Amino acid sequence: MLYGSCSHPLASVFLMLSCVRRFISSSSTVPSRLMDAASGRPVEASIRTKLAQAFGPDHLEVLNESHMHAVPPGSESHFRVLVVSSRFEGLSLLQRHRLVNETLSHELSTSVHALAIQAKTPQQWSSDPSLAKSPPCLGGSKHDSTVAQKLKTGLD
Fold first, then answer.
1. 50 or 35, which is more confident
2. Percentage of residues in the chain with pLDDT exceeding 70?
3. What is the 3-state secondary structure (H, E, C) of the chain?
4. How far apart are CA 60 and CA 79, in angstroms?
5. Are 81 and 100 in contact (CB under 8 A)?
6. What would the pLDDT profile of 74-125 be if each residue is shown by its tens digit?
7. Which domains does the chain show, CATH number per domain?
8. What is the rounded radius of gyration, in angstroms, for the C-alpha atoms of the chain?
9. Per-residue pLDDT tens for 36-57?
10. CA dihedral sign, ordered 123, 114, 63, 155
11. 121 near 86, Cβ under 8 Å?
């Protein structure tokens, strides 16, 4: 629903939130948890907040890719993250991924079924500022009983 051209009493609020969301997603220095809390996406907000606090990233992207998988609409179970941080300097790719996984251990043990990670140094990001694309879902999660359980429990 577009609120910019509607006379709904909250239209200006929704339009303002949309503008703030665009600003937040383009700037890693603004605490995006303020916007995400209002949007009703607690898992995404938690991921974004924890990664921002742990890595002080130059660039951070958190994408909910759940809609691409065999899960109910509105799910927060499949994510792709891009973290660009100087904390990754001198670390192997495996060490970087372990740090991200440790940071998000609660989400991975409760609500997140899949997490794709790109962990780059600022130098790597400047030479290749792109986010990899996920392959199409082959439906494997509909046979994984832990997905259904995680979707029921969500964040504690």
1. 50
2. 61
3. CCCCCCCCCCHHHHHHHHHHHHHHHHCCCCCCHHHHHHHCCHHHHHHHHHHHHHHCCCEEEEEECHHHCCCCCCCCCEEEEEEECHHHCCCCHHHHHHHHHHHCHHHHHHCCCEEEEEEECHHHHHHCCCCCCCCCCCCHHHHCHHHHHHHHHCCC
4. 13
5. yes
6. 888 889 999 999 999 999 999 999 999 999 999 999 999 899 999 999 999 9
7. 40-129+140-153 (3.30.300.90)
8. 17
9. 444 689 999 999 999 999 999 9
10. negative
11. yes
Report CA-CA distances (Å) from 67 to 64, 86, 99, 128, 139: 8, 32, 26, 27, 12
What type of residue is 5?
S
Distance, in Å, from the CA atom of 60 to the CA atom of 27, rounded to the nearest integer, reads: 8
- Buried-exposed string 116-153: b where 16+ CB fall within 10 A, e elsewhere: bbbbbbeeebeeeeeeeeeeebeeebeeeeebeebbee
How many other β-carbons are positioned within 10 Å of the β-carbon of residue 53? 11
